[in-house]
Amino acid sequence: MTADSLALLIAATLNAGTVVGLAALGLLINERSGVVNLGAEGMMLVAAIAGFAAGVHTGSDWWGFAAGAAAGATLAAALGGLVIWLNTNQYASGLALTLFGTGLSAFVGIKYTQLKLPERPHFEIPVLADLPFAGPAFFKHHPMVYLTIVLALGLTWFLMRTRAGRVLRAVGESPESAHALGYPVRRIRLLAVVTGGALCGLAGAYLSLVYTPLWVEGMVAGKGWIALALTTFATWRPARVLLGAYLFGGVTMLQFHLQGQGVQVPSQWLTMLPYLATIVVLVLISRNPTWIRINMPASLGKPFHPGA
Q1: Are the CB atoms for 260 and 23 separated by under 8 Å?
Q2: Residue 244: CB partners within 8 Å, gap ≥ 6?
Q3: Are 36 and 80 a contacting pair, CB within 8 Å?
Q4: Using CA atoms, how far apart are residues 59 and 210, in angstroms rounded to an integer?
Q5: What's the distance, Cα to Cα, between the start and end of the chain in Å?
Q6: pLDDT averaged over the chain?
Q7: CA distance 147 to 144
Q8: Which residue, among 182, 155, 175, 158, has the nearest Cα to 297 in the 3D structure?
């Protein structure tokens, strides 16, 4: 592998990892508050078509990202109303949201299948982008790639160093205790769910605006489920979520690199590689259930009844 091809592989890894990284950070916020959101796949699909449609009609990526975030937040708010106020089953409600989002995005996206986005802007960091190897590997990315890294670091600081972050963690660990201290547990959980939904929406919009700038039905292709698995892989820590996202992105891009190098392996096996790697990692982690139990929010997936 030449230096140029390695730089391109690193760049592609960061690009691919941003999609699942953004979504996984959103789901981590949900789960830190005690809410399991199995609707990430559906939210990302609806956000992808919303972002793509906004990009087509306005010619602006940023309006596309705003539309994607709004779509994700809206669906998350609907889920929050069901599971937080009506106390519906979190797992069933999340699966229903995924099914709804899959169908809605397919219906809305019919007329956008053949459309193309306007001319894409080219992003690079001046001076640094001209560096050999490091320039094309690290400094020629869309701003959302760098924003995801900053978001992971900021979320780590927020959860560990701020009062609001500690309250969020307390709600996820013991909502009854937080309620007894006067904190509005339901509103905190709803805010966390909506914020996480907005990040999933940004991930979906990034997918259709930057990663693969087009709309194809079902284009999320399981990345919402991978993002959900990453939260467990990372033991609910933002920095580890980002590391897992880049590992997944690297394995995903490696398959294309191997195909380009003429490696004689059936394409179906290479396509399976990132998902197989995720399963293997989860199996290895599950061999130590005590470790997961210690790090997992204690009230994850459990309803909260203020009057109980």
Answers
A1: no
A2: 24, 230, 233, 234, 281
A3: no
A4: 13
A5: 62
A6: 90
A7: 5
A8: 175
Distance (Å, whole) CA 71 – CA 28: 19
Angle at 142 (CA atoms; ends 138, 147), nearest 5 degrees: 85
> Any idea which residue has 């990315």 for tokens?
141
- Tokens 């979190």 belong to 90
* pLDDT of 23 over the 90 cut: yes
Q: How far apart are CA 119 and CA 9, in angstroms?
A: 24
**Which long-range contacts link 102-107 to residues 24+ away (Cβ below 8 Å)?**
102/41, 102/42, 102/45, 102/218, 104/42, 104/45, 104/46, 105/42, 105/45, 105/46, 105/48, 105/49, 105/217, 106/217, 106/218
> Tokens at residue 213, please?
């700038």
- Rg of the Cα trace of the chain? 20
Quote the CA–CA distance of 156 and 20 in Å, as a whole number.
18
Q: Which residue has the higher pLDDT, 282 or 15?
A: 15
Q: Where are the beta strands (DSSP E) in 131-276?
A: none
Q: Which two tokens stand for residue 215?
A: 């709309």
Please name the residue that has the structure tokens 């009057």: 307
At residue 88, the 3 state secondary structure works out as: coil
On the question of pLDDT at 286 being above 90, the answer is no
Task: Write out pLDDT tens, residues 155-213.
Answer: 999 999 999 999 999 999 999 999 999 999 999 999 999 999 999 999 999 999 999 99
CATH of 13-114+138-295, one of 3.40.1350, 1.10.3470, 1.25.40, 1.10.260: 1.10.3470
Q: Are 23 and 200 in contact (CB under 8 A)?
A: yes
